[in-house]
Each structure stands twice: as structure tokens, then as C-alpha cells.
Amino acid sequence: MSLLEIDKLKVYFPIRKGLLDRAKECVRAVDGVSFSIEAGESVGLVGESGCGKTTLSRAVVQLIKPTSGRIIFEGEDIANLSEAALRVRRRRFQMIFQDPYSSLNPRLTVLDLIGEALDIHSLVSDAAARRERVEGLLKSVGLDPSHAARYPHEFSGGQRQRIGIARALAVEPRLIVCDEPVSALDVSVQAQIINLLKDLQQELGVAYLFVAHDLAVVEHISHRILVMYLGRIVEAGEAKNLCRSPKHPYTQALLSAVPVVDSESKRPRIFLGGDVPSPIHPPSGCPFHPRCPIAEARCKTEVPLLREVEADRAVACHLVT
Amino acid sequence: MALLEIKNLQIEFGTGPKPARAVDGLSLRLEAGKTLCLVGESGSGKSVTALSIAKLLPTPPARYVGGEIWLEGRDVLRMSPRELQGIRGGVVSYIFQEPGASLNPVFRIGAQIKESLQYHRPELAHDSEVIRLLRLVGIPAPEVRLKNYPHEMSGGMQQRVMIAMALASQPKLLVADEPTTALDVTIQAQIIELLRDLRQQLGMAILLITHNLGIVGDIADDVAVMYAGQIVETGRVNEVLSHPLHPYTRALIGSVPRLGNHASRLTAIPGAVPRIEAFPQGCRFHPRCPDVQPSCSLQAPELSTVGTFRQVRCPFSSTNPSTL
After folding, report:
1. CATH no. for residue A227?
2. Greatest extent of chain A over all pairs of C-alpha atoms, in Å
3. Is B139 left (phi over 0), alpha (psi -120 to 50) or beta?
4. Which chain B residues contact residue A187 at CB under 8 A?
């Protein structure tokens, strides 16, 4: 049994307009996505801004209620649980956010920021045990235990992200959803955080859903990668293999945009014209066809389905055989 | 004569017995039509250097303690306020990291570009020139887009508008301070390509500031690597990227994640940039340096010239093992 199984998940946001506040249209942020995560595995989710990857990751941890579909975590559908029942389950899945500056309460010390998570789930018996546990967590993410008395503004971006990780780890989750955890950091610090996340996974066996727009970062931490475009998965497969031989034209373009230092390994760049189209009125047929360099006539009318093209590789494109 | 030449620039913040020296003896040279990348982590003093070129730092808290900034043969630091008005936009234009924060949310983008034209080329402050600029920066359907408000555009489109606004005054130097950091990798590639095109079309020089060495190779002629207020290595881009001499440059290159690199760990630089008021004794990089020697904590190394265009601030650069 998989740790997490997402089945035909849809998240639509209604746009209310007019006098009667009726929902006339809706943003199809996530439009029928299915995948699974095994225990101890990390799955990367990549795509440009506006493709729905943040909405999807938030729906997985039930910060957004899905419109339809099932989210089966440890064999139980958590999409329709009551708030009280969900709160107990939340100990098993946690989230790390993108912006380490706005995701920590500036008025709490690090001891209370992390201790709060312990209190909510009644994991410690007294103040001494609470302090000891927080100091242990700080050490495990590479911070000094004496930092427990400090406030968030006394830390750099990378250190704050470590505090966010310690807070997520406090309740011993089986799954951590990381929403662009390194996008706001310098490259040198990015590497520190990615190494830390990998070390913690080896040590604790925790699974990750790792969301980012940079494929080089995602390849480094993931066992499998999902490429998302306009609310749908367009390609999925084993990480190294997918990066070595991308099949979907969108994945190919994403890969060619990754910045490289040495000019020898530079691949010819495929420039995508324009931006991700509006998810309110997605293009007909294949949602990628207006930007696709190899689009044909039928791409404008027929929606391609995600299908297995070889072992451990699924692609949603008419032209991939 | 170089378009821009900074000599021994020193900038301090704060007062009292121990003011914080954000830029400490920095020298740079940029020829007309060339691209120089200034690279370093957050807190290394890159943005302070960039802002000082048009004397844009608020004083106080900043103080120009020493040095010269020669722009087209005139020292910016000795200009009158009126002269400064003339070079801001007229000679040097800026684009910044977050285009959403730099644009005024309550005016249409066409009006904002026109405002820049009114200052610098009032005879051209018409919609037709705005449309030409928007087309130049690759915005589709510019006739429609000039009526947009900033919130109606994506981040990449907003950055293009910022570039159009910067180009309206026909500057000789464009200073781009982390122009792609807030953008997706696909859009980052588009913007870098656009800057490279524009440099060729318009013959303008670019000073690009970034923390990501990955984008440097795509656009730069020269690179200057900055750490804790000082230049630690400069040179032609190919030489620096293929044979980095300073351990910090090597570490920065190593931290860029590579596709198809199956090593289990990325080479991270341990620790963080030291705080501006607490730079370490001796070499400022020594607490984080993988090749540190006993003498590094005692004597501050000088920037020494190796080869024609190459300078490095590390006495052990010739004996250090190249890790690449």
C-alpha cells in the first residue's frame, strides 16, 4: 500500500461575479491529477508559476478542500474528514513553506515556534521535556541549541528555513510537503538545505512531495518526477531517466532552461513563447499546444491523456510514441 | 576610456567608533557595450555597489568614505545634485529584482513608460514610442498591453516593462540587480536572452548582479566575484568559470545544481556570509574555506594580478587543488 494515493483530484476556484454573487466561471487550478507516493520516497513536482503546483500541494495536506477526487493517506480518505478528525491525522503529514520570512510568527521565540507543534499534539509532558526536545530538533537541522531563545528576525533566510524544517519534523510526520523550500534562497544556501533534506530522509525515512520550478534542484532530491502544466500532469517517470531523455515537448523546454555553469554541457535552448495560459479559459485540446514547437492539427482539438509509453514513464502527448 | 571605472570605493553604514564597512576598496572597470557580472551571496555588498554608481544610496545611513566612480569621464561622487539628475536614466538605468514592487500599481504601464520619456526625451512622449519600446522588449500586442495595469501582467511581462522603461532614456549602461531571481527558470532564460539581444541591438553596456553563476556564462564578458565587501576574483568569463582560482568562486560554482550529476550531495558552502560589523580577521573567507591554511586567519590577502585580465585575492590560489 502506498503512503499517499491521489486519485483524480480536482480543485476549482469559483469566480463570483455580478449582483447575485453567482459563480459564473471557475479557475481549474488542479484538473484531474492522480499519483502516489511510497513510504520514504521523494517525489518532485515541477512546473512554471500558475500551473497549479502550489494548489495541488496545499490540497494534499488539506489546507485547501478539493472539489472532487480522493486523497488516500495511509489507507484512509482524508478529503472528507471532519476538522477534529483531521487534526489528529495532521501529525502524520506536515508542510514546509516557500518564504521563510513570512511563515514564522515574528513574536514567538524559536522554542515556542517549534514547541507549539509539540503542544498541539500533546507530545511532551512538561516544560523541561519540551525544551529538551526542541534543542534536539535544532541540533538535527544543523542549528545551535542555544538559538531556541532567539526570535525569527535574528536569523538569515537559510537558518529560518531550517527552523521551518525543525517545526515540521517535531511531530514525527511520515510525509512532508515542501512547497518551493529553496526558491527564495541563494544558490550556496540552497545546496545546504537540499543536503539537509536528503540526510533527514535517510535518517528518518520520511517521504517528500518536493515542489519547485527548477528541474536541476528537483532531480537532485527526487526519486520520481511529475511535470505539471495548467492543472494536469503532462509527464511522469523515474527522476534520472526523465531528465536524461524527456519525452514531452514541455519537459524538454523546461530542461533546456536550466542554467548551467560550464559551456560544454550546454544543450540547445528551446524558448517557450509567452506565459502559461489562463486556467479560466484553458486552450482547447492539448493545453500546451499554443506554445508547443511541434503541435499538429489534432493537438488543437483532442485532449491527450496521460498514458504509459514505456516502463515507468507516462506522457500526455499525441506525438510521443 | 572605460564607460565605468570604480576605483577603491569605500562605503560605510552607521556612525560611532565602529561603523560597518559594506564596500571595502572595490575597483571595477566596464567598457562601453560590454557585460560585466558581479557575483556573490546575499550580504556581500553587490547591491550597495550597484546603487552607488548613480549615487542612489540614501545618505545617511550610508557614507561614501573614499574612492572614485568615473562614469563617462566624470566622477559621480563629486557631482552636483543637478548633474546627478542628468546621469540617472540619462547615462545609467536600473532594473531590480521584483518588478511587481518597482511598478506603480495604480497607473497603466503605458503611462509609466511615458513618464520616463517625458523626463528624458519629451519630444517622443507619445503612444507610438511606447509601443515601439514594448515591441523592442518582446511584449506581444503592445497596442493593447500599454493599457494594462501591472497586476494584469505576469512577473516575466512586468520585468519586460521595467526594461522598456529603463531603455526609454537610451542609457549607455543598464544596471540589472538580480533581474531574474524572482522568476521561473523558463522566464529567466527568456529575460537573459532579451538582455543579450538588446545589448547587441543598442550597443549598451550591462552590469548584471546575481548570486547564480549558472546564468553568468550565458551573457557576461567579464566576471567579478564579491565576498564580504571585497572583490575576491575577476577575469574573463570563460577563464573564471573553467579555471576558478579562488576557493570561494569554486564553492559558488559547485553549489549550482547540475542536471545529470548523480553525486549524492551538492557542494554547499558551510555557514553564511559574515555580518557586516563582524568580518573575520585575516582573509574574510577563511572560516568557510575548504582549503584554509594556518596563516589565513592572520594576514588579510591582497588582490594580486595573475595573467592579463585576471586578479585573485588568495595567496594559495596557484597551489590550491582544483576541485572541478
Report:
1. 3.40.50.300
2. 69
3. beta
4. 211-214, 252, 255-257
Asked if the structure places residue A46 within a domain, the reply is yes
The residue of chain A with its CA nearest to that of B190 is: A271
Instruction: Give the burial string for B77-102 (b: 16+ CB within 10 Å, else e).
Output: eebeeeeeeebbbbbbbbbbbbbbeb
Q: Is A165 a domain residue?
A: no
pTM assigned to the model: 0.83
- pLDDT digits over A52-105, tens only? 888 999 999 999 999 999 999 999 999 888 889 998 899 999 999 888 888 899
Interface ipTM: 0.76
Backbone angles phi and psi of A197, in degrees to 5: -60, -40
A52 within a domain of the structure (yes/no): yes
Residues written for chain B: 324
Number of structural domains chain A divides into:
1
Cβ-defined contact of B262 to A240 (cutoff 8 Å)? yes
Q: What is the pLDDT of residue A214?
A: 84
Evaluate if residue A263 carries a pLDDT over 80. no
Please enumerate in sequence order all residues whose Cβ is within 8 A of that of A217, keeping only pairs 6 or more positions apart, or say none: A182, A190, A194, B257
Find the residue in B nearest to A269 (Cα): B189
C-beta atoms of B185 and A275 within 8 A:
no
Let me know if residue A128 belongs to a domain. Answer: no
Cell 503532462 locates to A234
Residue-range definition of the domain harbouring residue A255: 4-102+175-315
